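Look at one such:
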Amino acid sequence: MADTTPSQRLWKSFKRNKLALFGLIYIGLTVVAAILGYLIMPDSTPQANNMAIQLSIKKPGSVFTMLRIRKGQPVEHVNLFKEMLYGQPDDYTNLPITGFHFVKDSIVVDQYIGDEDKPERAAYNVFEVVNGHGTSYNSKGIANISVQNTHIINPIQLKALQDRIRESQIVKKKYLLGTDLYGRDLLSRIILGARISLAVGLVSVIISLLVGVAVGAAAGYYGGWVDSSLSWVMNVLWALPTLLLVIAISFALGKGLWQIFIAIGISMWVDVARLVRGQVMGLKQFEFVEAAKALGFSNYRIIRRHILPNIAGPILVLASSNFASAILLEAGLSFLGFGAQPPMPTWGGMIKEHYGYIIMDAAYLAMLPGLAIMLMVYAFNLVTIGLRDAFDVKSQNSRI
């Protein structure tokens, strides 16, 4: 239609590619899950780091009965926004059990310590289970609560405490994707790992675009010694392997999440600069640029208002491709130990922790985060192909 805008025509062309549309939907759903984060995760504790060593390496779909024992120290409760971003510490210590019964003012439980081990029997005062007492751990990682029968509880209060424990503190917990080496919920850590990967990709692409567009536009537009100098820098960096360059920058900046943002962003700007330089060199000879110069517009205005909007398509295609590359780089760095540090969950870090189990009966521990990386990178590559075809005028004309 003649009255449609360029963005509408672009979207209409993009929608024709069903695989690219599927990739965009998958990315959108992953972004929503990453933003909501702790609000939708089974384990909403900070970094999804609620360990239960007794439940180490349990298969997907495993269900366990938990006795929730209130912690002795008060836990600060945060608002919904902070919980979404940083998580909410648990008010309770979760103790896996296989059975329980009440004896006077105590609850006697059979503590689960492994499939091949006999449950360990322990007794806890019901008042302390409900209201909290000092919690410690023995050498096996089993929670211990010192029982001091100093609380005088009448029969009515005792019945109320027992009912409360039965109703709200004896719960079934299902691990949909199983547990990791430290007994943490694998699904929660994969969801939180998506937030890390997407954040690294987004920030790295923004940094690479800011630097690459500025350098490439200056080199292509001004030419001469400016082009020669900047092209020399680009060629030197282009000759270095990307992963080695990122590792070198990480060594200089130190280990951490923001260091990865900078390292990957700095290593990726050369691709953007080379593309922008070539596009600008071709466009600056066009009549509309010569007309802008004749009208006395500044070079900055010509580049920003007249040249860059005309090369937005190729830049956007490259940005989508670089997003996938940034996710792979972050995963590789985390696997090598240069990425975000434990206990912060990253897909590459999860593979590093569990790759030894691939040859055992728990290959899913490394395969699930690997599958998450593969699907995310594949989705961005599909979107890249869809954008390339949508911006290709010859391809659009051939469909009409």
User: Anything to note?
Assistant: The CA atoms of residues 3 and 238 lie 44 Å apart. The chain has a mean pLDDT of 88. The first strand starts at residue 62 and ends at 70. The first helix runs from residue 6 to 16.
